[in-house]
């Protein structure tokens, strides 16, 4: 199917983009990689009057560290993440997740910013950013605001980004020493969205006590979900088979999956439990390695 | 906010310049036209195939600035200034013994039965060329992983992996 007709604009600065967003209001859609937007337009789930291609705006494609913060530009492609040495060194979770997002062709185009801005709990970056307690920088004509990831997702395809705003950057706090992170998703085949996915980041101190836990869940809840009770079950305790089992049970109980071709509710809850256990183990191993 | 420019039937065609297989083409396109449709319908480059039109099968794989992409999810208006290569552009040109010379991977697909109906083949070869060039062909498992964006409905996977491996080992060059 062919998308409905639209006007195409390719601003070369953020200011120019803001002017266009003002002009078209919510009839405009921003295009980054286009790998979620264009399929939706072909299915006529979206028929924007104007596409604002932000790929020609400079300065949105870098991964840089500034002091305690790792910054990922909104237009950083998944394929770029695969080679970002400093990011991967501190956050091995990104090596896990990019490999699991779609396939090489999609990863050459799809952006991290678009993956979040799409506002879909089936995408993999939302849960990862929850585990890392990232923030999202949203810019508009009147300035920028930094929104914690927990306040970013509003509903199905709906986020904190207003029609006249652009997501420009993701900011991730640098981890303390002895931190590890891991992600895995169960998929029916390569390129499929998750049946269930679990992202974990843990910090473990010299006495073996967990001092930080971040756990995010993919595609088992209407919104990307923080497994808050699971995190609480770990922080302040030693990571043992018992604490891990408790955390896994909470994640499995607290999520709210829906039955679909990928499995029924009971199965998905069970898989959340299994993956939570495995990712806690993996993150803990990486934390002390 | 009310839109000032209703797009429904007035969206302007845009004059663009596309560089495909080292040739330059000037044409007017609607913004909604995908690169795949422009290649096939306007430039008569029908080697790139339309399998799903949704980025799921890889039959439309081309190279954009040397990297694989699904042409069905790219807007043609966005490709100005980029180097696009399709299956029609990878053979070295010329003839040997009256036969058109092929890219080594094309020859290897024939030798190793890397196809049955052939519909997925142009996309498979475009991905295979990138896999070889980017150094992702060190083992059958690695080849399978990096070829995972290309589906073969006929299940010629064993031959496809063998073809890529053979070019990696250098025994079908020429
Ligand atoms: C076959 C296939 C399989 C896939 N499998 C997976 C998978 O397993 N896991 C996964 O996570 N994803 C998957 N994806 C989605 C892919 O990762 C998308 O690229 C990603 O979801 C969106 O990124 P994009 O840059 O393409 O965004 P676009 O499609 O350009 O945009 C998506 C949405 O976000 C908005 N937007 C984009 N950028 C901005 C911005 N900077 N500011 C404000 N709004 C913005 C757009 O207006 C649009 O509404 C798959 C896609 C395909 C085609
Ligand atoms: S036709 Fe483009 S991926 Fe299937
Ligand atoms: S050869 Fe028929 S689809 Fe691959």
TrEMBL record, chain A:
Gene3D superfamilies on file: 3.30.465.10, CO dehydrogenase flavoprotein, C-terminal domain, Uridine Diphospho-n-acetylenolpyruvylglucosamine Reductase, domain 2
Kindly indicate where the leader peptide sits in this chain. Answer: none
Q: Does the keyword Nucleus apply?
A: no
Q: Which GO terms describe its molecular function?
A: FAD binding; oxidoreductase activity
- Which keywords annotate this record? FAD, Flavoprotein, Oxidoreductase
PROSITE patterns reported in the protein's UniProt record: FAD_PCMH
What are the FAD-binding PCMH-type domain coordinates in residue numbering?
1-177
Oxidoreductase: is it a keyword of this entry?
yes
What the entry lists under InterPro entries is as follows: CO_DH_flav_C, CO_DH_flav_C_dom_sf, Diverse_Substr_Oxidored, FAD-bd_PCMH, FAD-bd_PCMH-like_sf, FAD-bd_PCMH_sub1, FAD-bd_PCMH_sub2, Mopterin_DH_FAD-bd
Q: Which Pfam families match?
A: CO_deh_flav_C, FAD_binding_5
Q: Which PANTHER family match?
A: XANTHINE DEHYDROGENASE SUBUNIT C-RELATED
Q: Protein name, please?
A: Xanthine dehydrogenase family protein subunit M
| Species for this entry | Fibrella rubiginis
């Amino acid at each position: 199917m062919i998308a409905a007709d639209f006007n195409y604009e390719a601003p070369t600065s953020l200011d120019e983009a803001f002017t266009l967003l003002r002009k078209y209001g919510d009839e405009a859609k921003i295009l980054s990689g286009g790998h979620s937007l264009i399929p939706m337009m072909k299915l006529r789930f979206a028929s924007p009057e104007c596409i604002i291609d932000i790929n020609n705006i400079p300065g949105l494609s870098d991964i840089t560290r500034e002091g305690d913060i790792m910054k990922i530009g909104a237009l950083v492609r998944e394929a770029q993440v695969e080679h970002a040495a400093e990011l991967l060194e501190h956050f091995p979770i990104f090596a896990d997740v990019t490999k699991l997002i779609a396939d090489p062709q999609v990863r050459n185009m799809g952006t991290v910013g678009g993956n979040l801005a799409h506002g879909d709990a089936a995408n993999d970056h939302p849960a990862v950013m929850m585990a890392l307690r990232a923030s999202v920088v949203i810019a508009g004509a009147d300035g920028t605001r930094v929104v914690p990831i927990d306040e970013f997702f509003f509903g199905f395809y709906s986020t904190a980004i207003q029609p006249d705003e652009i997501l420009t950057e993701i900011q991730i706090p640098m981890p303390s020493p002895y931190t590890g992170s891991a992600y895995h998703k169960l998929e029916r085949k390569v390129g499929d969205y998750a049946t269930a996915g679990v992202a974990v980041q843990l910090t473990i101190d010299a006495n073996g006590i967990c001092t930080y836990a971040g756990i995010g869940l993919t595609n088992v809840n209407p919104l990307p979900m923080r497994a808050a009770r699971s995190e609480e079950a770990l922080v302040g305790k030693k990571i043992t088979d018992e604490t891990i089992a408790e955390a896994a049970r909470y994640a499995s109980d607290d999520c709210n999956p829906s039955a679909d071709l990928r499995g029924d509710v009971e199965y998905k809850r069970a898989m959340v439990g299994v993956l939570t256990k495995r990712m806690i183990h993996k993150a803990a191993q990486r934390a002390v390695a | 906010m009310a839109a000032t420019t209703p797009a429904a039937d007035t969206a302007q065609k845009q004059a663009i310049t596309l560089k495909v297989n080292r040739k330059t083409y000037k044409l007017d396109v609607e913004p909604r036209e995908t690169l795949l449709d422009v290649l096939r319908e306007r430039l008569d480059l029908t080697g790139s195939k339309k399998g799903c039109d949704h980025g799921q099968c890889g039959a439309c794989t081309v190279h954009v600035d040397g990297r694989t992409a699904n042409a069905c999810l790219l807007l043609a208006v966005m490709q100005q200034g980029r180097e696009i290569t399709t299956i029609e552009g990878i053979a070295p040109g010329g003839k040997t013994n009256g036969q058109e010379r092929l890219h080594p991977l094309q020859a290897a697909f024939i030798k190793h039965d890397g196809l049955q109906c052939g519909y997925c083949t142009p996309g498979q070869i475009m991905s295979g060329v990138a896999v070889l060039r980017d150094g992702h062909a060190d083992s059958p498992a690695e080849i399978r992983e990096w070829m995972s964006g290309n589906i073969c409905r006929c299940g010629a996977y064993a031959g496809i992996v063998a073809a890529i491996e053979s070019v990696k080992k250098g025994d079908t060059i020429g």
